Amino acid sequence: MKKTTGFIAILAILFASCTASKPGQSKEDLVTTAYDAASVQYGNMLDFVAGNEKAMPRTLKKDGSMRWTHPFDWTAGFFPGSLWYLYEQTGEQKWKTAAIAQQAKIEHYKTKYNNHDIGFTMNCSFGNALRLTKDETYKEVLVTSANTLAGRFSETTGCLMSWNPSKSRDFKYPVIVDNMMNLELMFVASVLSGDSKYKDIAVTHAVTTIKNHYRPDGSSFHLVDYDPETGKPRRKITVQGYADESAWARGQAWGLYGYVMCYRFTKDRRFLDQAVKIADFLANHKNMPADGVPYWDFNAPNIPNAHRDVSAGAIMASAFYELSTYAKGGKRFRVFADKTITSLAGKAYTPESGQNSNFILMHAVGHLPGDVEVDVPLNYADYYYLEALKRKSILDEGKKLKDWFAYTSDDLRGV
Question: Which UniProt keyword terms apply here (predicted)?
Answer without folding.
Answer: Hydrolase, Signal
